[in-house]
Amino acid sequence: MRYEEFDKYIPYTDPENKLVHAYKDEQGNTFYVEPGFYSGLQGFKEKRLERYQEILDAIDEVIKKEHKVIFTADFENPWITRDGFIYREILDITDPLKIFVEDKSRGSDYGD
């Protein structure tokens, strides 16, 4: 699956983990985008399209500032681990921007 939001970066295949998209930018910063993070990113695109570019810009800033990043769905249980990399979840990007999506999912009201 192509992650079109990251087309401006240079993709590469990490021989240790071919399932996670890996990229470099022109400055040599390296980052990974795990499927769970991308799924969360797509949720924001669907629900908050008017601020989606802000999210992408913030991701770019994290890459430039931290140099080695793994974008993951759950930093306590990432798909990959790499020495010297930091982990960021989608809410680490969106919360400082005050971009929220209300989770209205709940259990069934039936069965009482």
Structure description:
The chain is an alpha/beta fold. 29% of the residues lie in helices and 21% in strands. The chain has three helices and five strands; from the N terminus they run βββααββα. The chain has helices at residues 35-47, 52-66, 90-94, and strands at 10-14, 17-24, 30-33, 68-71, 86-88. A five-stranded mixed beta sheet has the order 1-2-3-4-5. The radius of gyration is 15 Å and the shape is globular.
Short description:
This protein is an alpha/beta fold. It contains three helices and five strands. A five-stranded mixed beta sheet has the order 1-2-3-4-5.
Largest sheet geometry = 5 strands, mixed
Helix content: 25-40%
**Total strand count, please?**
5
From the alpha-carbon coordinates, what is the Rg to the nearest angstrom?
15 Å
What's the average pLDDT?
Answer: 93
Largest sheet strand order: 1-2-3-4-5
**Through-space gap between termini:** 43 Å
Question: Helix count?
Answer: 3
Spatial shape: globular
- Which structural class should the secondary elements be placed in? alpha/beta
Low-pLDDT sequence parts: none
Relative strand content: 15-25%
Compressed to H and E, one letter per element, the order equals EEEHHEEH
